[in-house]
Amino acid sequence: MSAKTSVWLAFFCALCCLIHDADLRSIQQKASQCGYQSCHPTKPNMLNVHLVAHTHDDVGWLKTVDQYYYGSETRIQKAGVQYIIDSVVEALLRDPEKRFIYVESAFFFKWWKEQTTKVQDAVKMLVEQGRLEFIGGAWSMNDEATTHYQSVIDQFSWGLRLLNDTFGECGRPRVGWQIDPFGHSREMASMFAQMGFDGMFFGRLDYQDKDERLMTKNAEMIWHGSANLGEEADLFSGALYNNYQAPDGFCFDVLCSDAPIIDGKHSPDNNVKERIDTFLDFAKTQSQYYRTNNIIITMGGDFTYQAAQVYYKNLDKLIRYANERQANGSNINLLYSTPSCYLKSLHDAGITWPTKSDDFFPYASDPHAYWTGYFTSRPTLKRFERDGNHFLQVCKQLSALAPNKPEEFAPHLTFMRETLGIMQHHDAITGTEKEAVALDYAKRMSVAFRACGATTRNVLNQLTVQSKENVKDKAAKYVFEFKTCALLNITSCPVSEVNDRFALTLYNPLAHTISEYVRIPVSDPNYKIIDNKGVTLETQAVPIPTPVINIKHRNSTAKYELVFLATNIPPLGYRTYYIEKLDNTEATGKTRASPKSTTSVTVIGNSHIKLGFDTNGFLSEVTADGLTRLVSQEFLFYEGAVGNNAEFLNRSSGAYIFRPNENKIHFSADQVEIEVYKGDLVQEVHQKFNDWISQVVRVYNKDSFAEFEWLVGPIPIDDGIGKEVITRFNSDIESDGIFRTDSNGREMIKRKLNHRDTWSVRINEEVAGNYYPITTKIDLEDDTARMAILTDRAQGGSSLKDGSLELMVHRRLLRDDAFGVGEALNETEFGDGLIARGKHHLFFGRSTDREGVSLKALERLTQLEKLMPTWKFFSNMEAYSADEWQTSFTNTFTGISLVLPKPVNLLTLEPWHENQLLVRFEHIMENGEDASYSKPVQFNVKNVLSAFDIEGIRETTLDGNAWLDETRRFQFAPDPEEAAFNTYGTFEEPAKSVHLLSPEKPMLGVKYAEEALPAGQLGAQSNRIKRETNSEQINKDEGRSSKSSDGAYNSFKADSDSQDYIIELSPMEIRTFIVYLKTA
Ligand SMILES: [Zn+2]
């Protein structure tokens, strides 16, 4: 242990005593005055410098979540979150002037649970007085590129709910705080707005963009979060001047080595004058780039404030000595503040702001550091997270639908919610953590699967086994296993491989009846499948591709996949199938292995879509919608650049950064070995590109798209070269440099090669600088044809040539990129490079004038079905014959009676507080995507949720924690079109400047009319959902509102008439409700 470390530790012990000795009761309880009311006053004729004391606590990065919380592994990083909260609370209690913000609910509530009531009460007081303020408030500070909106909404809902349950309305964050994510999505802005946030601040944007915005005073703006939703998705967003760090030389933390403020009158080290001069210079410089006489300076950083007094003591001095100068004419005023108090000052300035409609991707921090590698980094962790979200939704629904709900259901569900919350963190799903931390995340996920797996087994047994009369093993706790096969991703499942008789229960989490092609790993091709009515289904056995069989650590006897079409699987329900091995004499497997064709074109497909393969085994053409076009597909790889990172020209490709060596690309193969299998259900081409890349291309009989199931790895590195592997689809579509990518799985955003919408970009990395995050979809089109690819996890992607789409599927690199991880992204499993497997779905057809449903709408519907397919539960059936099974058990179930209209998705159904459900409905189409599906739709909530005895519903903000009709947000006025940046004065210029609106005539009045609340009251309005709301109140409330077709809101009186439960959704709209259930 170094001398430095022991001093550091000794310091903590001293602190611990202080915390316990503090007389918490000595502080007088003041009336609740949180929110904007608690802001320290600013001075109108001065530059107000809002000092924000904060800590950035990654929910896992170089250390695991728990290592960060407890502060272990100090050799890796001196970071212990428990000490931070301890010491901040202590410092805040000593001085009511001080402020602190806290962001990550995952850490906060871990700490909270460990506290005594006395400490909890003291913290409640701090929160009520606005001295400790929650900002962001989600379970973690989520990444914005690789996350799916469903998971982001979930993790905000949960974090905000615990804050609400614990602190009431004073715990509600008003401001988003996305200071570290590596670029920012438009959908995130939209979600913040719909959750009722007043604004959001962020740290990272392209260095050119930032320069430009600062120079033109456009770093704070109104962001139009949606191309479909209008103003309700607008969010005031501000780019911080100095990321989230303290100004150079002013990190007073124990982690830093900057000089404290030494104010001993006769001290030879007295540095007050010099330090205050420097700080005020910094403030003046910063103020020149912003529009009002307020600036925000973040005083903190990664895991700062473990010894809060050290920082605060120096901030006290900084404020005192700087403000003393006001007596001598200084016009700079320093104050303890928070992001929301800063935002309030911006709002109260009453000026206008620039607007923005695109997003902040990709993020570049220098000419050779495009943060586009993490779009793909750790592809298997990214997929595991998507599986986790899928099972979380199943677990939520079944927990809500269960006839009996034992006590353990709630903690199981909570554990999975919180695990998925952690997974959204900007160093978790991004793949930018150390390998050991990635493994810790995976382990947490697998425990969460087990927890929720116990719940789903319980519920499915309740629903399936109505009476124990026919049950053979009466002593058994559960009649059926309802097991999840975690290794289906390598086509392995012990239940289906080992047992001659087993059941497959398909649980459908969508509120639509669906049909789905199902694949089951089996060791023999001959099986019989009967459905719940005893009907024997058509099956097809397809050989498992040799490269899959040969996966070194795959311990499976399965040699075939048994394919069948499961039809009419009920919404929010299940259908069970009985599967039995046949004697060889009854063989039914009907796949014909076509001879390898080397001399002629191979074609697979159906009447909707046909794929042709050339004599070298590559895809060569696609026929769909009466169009036959050249479409090829191949695997290629970039070499990761290698350098010492000493300057940006020598940047290495790494976990964050994608930097291909000289933009050179290598083909993985000149010739592909293929095997062709054709049956009545599916036709497949098995391609082998080389020893580490293979693929199955398949078209199911009824589908109008093609599936590409790729298998990549272990990526060889024996040549000493890191490789970044892509799949590329080339077509003759004349896309003219334009393509579109999704934003967090929702709205599509137009991209143009070598272009950014808001500034004239200079791109020094022509490949990496054109990569964008693809969470679910990338597409391009011309006047006649369009091509779209759906992904099954987040990947980086681009269109570097007209007609061409590429997606990076896997990367293995040998150098670190010097952004902190300190490890090369060189994932291994079982002693070899990591193998990744996944699916792309290719849509091709007419861009316009298509018969029936548009291709875009078809893509949306498929996107939903691929995100939330049926969940497969396997049970051993050795004890029951097919007849016994069919007559003794309930083998089909549905939780709803009214199927939702096609473009509507039941985004959320989960148990919330006692006798409450949290329910979300969303319209999944954008405006103009389809002539009929892109229209507003109406339906009756009560009919949809008929399985529940509903007493009332009330609409909330997107996060489910505030009543929508009581929620008010700050409104900011956009610049008039002709406004030019240089007409704005800095604080030194007279406030009479033409474009500065006088405070007496705020522009916002226009929008809110009489409804507008004085800004100071906004934060304290009781828009919080009270836990105790009783049914009487609900019925009296006019809270439920329904949008009529012309967009106007009508309030309904709630009575027994179910007409009152009719709601309408317009394209891309999400509506969230608390559903009150009658108590039994
Ligand atoms: Zn971070």
UniProtKB/TrEMBL annotation:
Residues 1019-1051 are annotated as: Disordered. Its cofactor is Zn(2+). InterPro entries: Gal_mutarotase_sf_dom, GH38_C, Glyco_hydro/deAcase_b/a-brl, Glyco_hydro_38_C, Glyco_hydro_38_cen, Glyco_hydro_38_cen_sf, Glyco_hydro_38_N, Glyco_hydro_38_N_sf. Keywords: Disulfide bond, Glycoprotein, Glycosidase, Hydrolase, Metal-binding, Signal, Zinc. Its EC number is 3.2.1.-. It comes from Drosophila rhopaloa (Fruit fly). Gene3D superfamilies: 2.60.40.1360, Glycoside hydrolase 38, N terminal domain, Glycoside hydrolase family 38, central domain, Golgi alpha-mannosidase II, Golgi alpha-mannosidase II, domain 4. This is Alpha-mannosidase. Residues 1-24 form the signal peptide. Residues 369-445 form the Glycoside hydrolase family 38 central domain. Belongs to the glycosyl hydrolase 38 family. Pfam families: Alpha-mann_mid (PF09261), Glyco_hydro38C2 (PF17677), Glyco_hydro_38C (PF07748), Glyco_hydro_38N (PF01074), Laman-like_dom (PF21260). It comes from the Eukaryota. It catalyses: Hydrolysis of terminal, non-reducing alpha-D-mannose residues in alpha-D-mannosides. Binds 1 zinc ion per subunit.
